[in-house]
Design goal:
By secondary structure, this protein is mainly α. It folds into two domains: 125 residues; 333 residues, Neurolysin, domain 3. Helix content is 65%, strand content 3%. The protein has a three-stranded mixed β-sheet, sandwiched between helices. A hairpin with a 2-residue loop joins β2 and β3. It is globular and about 65 Å long. Bound molecules: zinc ion (ZN). The site of zinc ion has 4 residues, from α10 and α11.
Amino acid sequence: MEDRFKLLAERFAEIADLNAASAVLQWDQETYMPVQGCAARSNALATIQTEAHRRLVSDEVAGLLDAVEGWARARGEDSFEAAFVRTARRDHARARKVPGELVAELARTTSLALEAWQAARARSDFAAFAPHLEKVVSLNRRKAEALETGERLYDALLDEYEPGAKTSEVEAAFRVLREGLVPIVREVVAREGAVSSAVLNAECAEAEQFELCKEVVARLGYDFERGRLDRSAHAFTTTFSVDDVRITTRVKKDFLPSALYAAVHECGHALYAQGIDKRFERTPLNDGASLGVHESQSRLWENLVGRGRPFCAWLLPLLRKRFPDAFGRCSQEEFYRAVNKAGPSLIRVEADEVTYNLHVLLRFELESALVEGRLKVSDAPEAWNARMSDTVGIAPPDDARGILQDIHWAAGLIGYFPTYTLGNIMSAQFYAKAREALPELEAQLARGEFAPLKGWLGEKLHVHGRKVSAGRLLQRVVNGPLDSKPFLDYLQRKYAELYGFQP
Ligand code: ZN
């Protein structure tokens, strides 16, 4: 049996190699590829990805999985072999359940939808995008039906990004969150002038900002021997192997937080990816437990650490040294308040920690209603605008700054949005435990000592990769299920103090 398992592992190692190769090509596309390289790159990517898919769904893999499953389980649920076969089986089964013609049609549809979306957004013309969205929704519905996971149709789509999560659980957690967030937003709006972010609009040389980002992520523990930082239009993290995890950031000359916090965010993802057990290299276990858990790590570093007083105290001297004109006279308190300014805004990716989740909640409500047939595409913009007014307190003046702002639906990604907020919820649950375990944490952060926190996260979360599911990881680390309360408590305390209201 050992031989059969070895053969299965070899097959998955080859699939991992193909996936790594396509990740390198995608990384290059986003960073250094000349514009004219696009067509050739699409072909190369399509060929490699089709080959990886063909191998994953092959009868050989099916036979090997059947043969070793019982043997692997007998080695114990927590064994490497059992976890390997469990995740390999999941990937294989999901890929096999969706018919090839549906995969191809989704690819064709989204490639046209992306083009149409870009044009529609530029002209703020939802009607031009609507037929494409109709098609994306109906294909996703067919995909969900083919996958047959869970009671709700949306469960199957959510499960792709957040394995094991149920739509009804997410709805329950988000309901609690909304009830807590809306009053905070109201208080913040009533005291709008209490916090100023003016100091952040000073010009800072782009090259120097990029150097600062490098310095900061290196201090946080990002290993430049096993990664690199580059610039791209949208910041992202990508993994070629445990020993090659790349991050990018974007730079805005007159808004330093854009580059800085994107780098810290991606660094959080990268610390996770660099911290996975090296034995998982070239196996299906070399990945995060879920997108939500991954996002919990980026958000933990970006917000709970990066927008906290201790971190700001450590950071300010570095800023003064590199940008004396912009930050020479800025006080710690002024900087801390500036990077935490909150308030209603139209664009999700620019939103603060409080309102951000309301943006996500509305997308989750709309996309689950679209897939499950409770909302028509033609009624979606109105539903979007009404919810923006209701919960965020601001009405989009046009669809470009409303329903057309995100790439996800055009790219066919339905079920993805909730993972952003699940990540925020989990980040507070994990951070509360870290503070208990590391009583000196705040003092360490203020001194720029990030190793104890990185070490704790590494041991509790990162090292396990995809071996332990998101649900079990939470259970193990925080002794409980997903819970919005720690995140709400954190926001209530922080923003009540910043804006001067009763929590
Ligand atoms: Zn992220």
